[in-house]
Amino acid sequence: FEDDMENPQRPPLLQQCCNELHQEEPLCVCPTLKGASKAVKQQVRQQGQMQGQQMQHVISRIYQTATHLPRVCNIPQVSVCPFQKTTPGPYY
Amino acid sequence: PAGPFRYPRCRKEFQQAQHLRACQQWLHKQARQSGSG
């Protein structure tokens, strides 16, 4: 199973992130990813280097990236986390 | 309660400050790249 998780083309930081997600219970992958996305959003806002549309674009990118991480990391039982532009689901 | 943690077990896990540290750094990196794009 470990071998499946190691993907030589993956950047090391992404590989570490995938390893972290594989430690999560499947039920918690999306809620904790949502929490992590919120934390990063707050960090970006606190840095105050961006305003208006650029900030919106960056925040959208954070959630878009987080949405697809379960599939990128081959997390069993979880393919995407419907954080954006989807009908409200159990993660809202 | 509102928010992403409708499953109390998940809430407990995320409250550990270093939780999903690498994922937070990866998301931050993607944000920086998109912000400078």
Give a short overview.
Chain A has helices spanning 2-5, 12-23, 26-47, 52-72. Chain A is mainly α.
Q: Specify the structural class of chain A.
A: mainly alpha
Low-confidence stretches of chain A: 85-92
Taken from the alpha-carbon principal axes, the silhouette of chain B is elongated
What about the largest sheet of chain A? Answer: none
Helix content of chain A: 55-70%
Low-confidence stretches of chain B: none
How far is it from the N-terminal to the C-terminal residue of chain A, by CA?
Answer: 31 Å
Layout of secondary structure:
The complex is a heterodimer of chains A (92) and B (37).
Chain A: H1 2-5, H2 12-23, H3 26-47, H4 52-72
Helix pairs in contact in A: 3-4
Chain B: H1 8-14, H2 21-35
List the defining traits of the structure above:
heterodimer; A: 92 residues; mainly alpha; 64% helix; disordered C terminus; B: 37 residues; 2 helices; elongated
Describe this structure in words.
The complex is a heterodimer of chains A (92) and B (37). By secondary structure, chain A is mainly α. Chain A is built from four helices and no strands. The longest helix of chain A has 22 residues, at 26-47. The relative contact order of chain A is 0.17. With 37 residues, chain B is an all-alpha fold. Chain B has two helices and no strands. Chain B has helices at 8-14, 21-35. The interface between A and B is medium-sized, with 38 and 24 residues.
